[in-house]
């Protein structure tokens, strides 16, 4: 079975001690491709380099949690990078972009501006987007109705109604470690009921660890770690198989095809 991790921050400092080992373990687990989203101009070249070094894919964008520290010139830098690398087959999306209405202290007006401008850049470049959705689905959808782009709603945790609107607009929904928690009732309900052609898998590694890697605050304070890895994807996929009544092979086949529909440039890399 072959898997695609549609969202992995391989450049994160948590992977500095053993990044090559992380990639090797992913390949050994059948994770043939990973999509590495940028979060700021400062890591555009890092994710591009890692994608080329390890035979992976990457996206360029400015994360909503990084917008407070970004300048208007960063949007120009993103435009220039998208133009410079427009023929790079490993550049598969604009991302990670979006809105975050959970974290306090963010300049939401500035975040909306960056989100809209990045949607425009994606549309002009003919690229899909990787969307950060955290208590912000309606605000994201408002702009997507105006600017026709497609892509993946990463770590989706909205309502059934919001999920359907994203699907109607041509988006796939990303499911990962959060789905493995029994108490994540809404996410598990969505994973069980949304159309099969709307599902993709992700880890968001090193973040959103599945339940078997989760550590409490006290455990983390005592030095225990909960780093997620792309090699966890097949085990995460087993949860989806259990929820849907599918075999792991069915999950692999369905999500493999869906990822390539969401991010069309992945097809050539998968071959």
TrEMBL record:
<keyword id="KW-0378">Hydrolase</keyword>
<dbReference type="GO" id="GO:0016787">
    <property type="term" value="F:hydrolase activity"/>
</dbReference>
<protein>
    <submittedName>
        <fullName>TatD family hydrolase</fullName>
    </submittedName>
</protein>
<dbReference type="InterPro" id="IPR001130">
    <property type="entry name" value="TatD-like"/>
</dbReference>
<dbReference type="Pfam" id="PF01026">
    <property type="entry name" value="TatD_DNase"/>
</dbReference>
<dbReference type="InterPro" id="IPR018228">
    <property type="entry name" value="DNase_TatD-rel_CS"/>
</dbReference>
<comment type="similarity">
    <text>Belongs to the metallo-dependent hydrolases superfamily. TatD-type hydrolase family.</text>
</comment>
<dbReference type="InterPro" id="IPR032466">
    <property type="entry name" value="Metal_Hydrolase"/>
</dbReference>
């Amino acid at each position: 079975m072959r898997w695609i991790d549609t969202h992995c921050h391989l450049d994160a400092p948590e992977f500095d001690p053993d990044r090559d080992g992380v990639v090797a373990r992913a390949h050994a687990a059948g994770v043939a491709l990973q999509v590495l989203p940028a979060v700021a101009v400062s890591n555009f070249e890092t994710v591009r380099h890692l994608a080329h070094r390890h035979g992976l894919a990457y996206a360029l964008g400015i994360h909503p949690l990084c917008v407070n520290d970004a300048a208007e010139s960063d949007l120009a830098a993103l435009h220039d990078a998208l133009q410079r690398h427009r023929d790079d087959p490993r550049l598969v999306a604009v991302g990670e972009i979006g809105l975050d209405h959970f974290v306090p202290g963010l300049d939401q007006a500035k975040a909306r501006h960056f989100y809209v401008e990045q949607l425009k850049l994606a549309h002009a470049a003919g690229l899909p987007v990787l969307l950060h959705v955290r208590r912000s689905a309606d605000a994201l959808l408002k702009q997507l109705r105006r600017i026709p782009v497609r892509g993946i709603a990463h770590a989706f945790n909205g309502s059934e109604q919001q999920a359907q609107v994203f699907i109607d607009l041509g988006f796939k929904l990303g499911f990962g470690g959060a789905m493995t928690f029994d108490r994540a009732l809404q996410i598990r309900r969505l994973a069980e009921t949304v159309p099969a052609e709307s599902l993709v898998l992700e880890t968001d590694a090193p973040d959103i660890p599945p339940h078997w890697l989760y550590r409490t605050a006290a455990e983390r304070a005592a030095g225990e770690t909960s780093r997620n890895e792309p090699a966890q994807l097949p085990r995460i996929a087993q949860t989806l198989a259990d929820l849907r009544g599918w075999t792991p092979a069915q999950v692999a086949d369905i999500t493999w095809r869906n990822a390539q529909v969401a991010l069309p440039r992945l097809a050539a890399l998968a071959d």
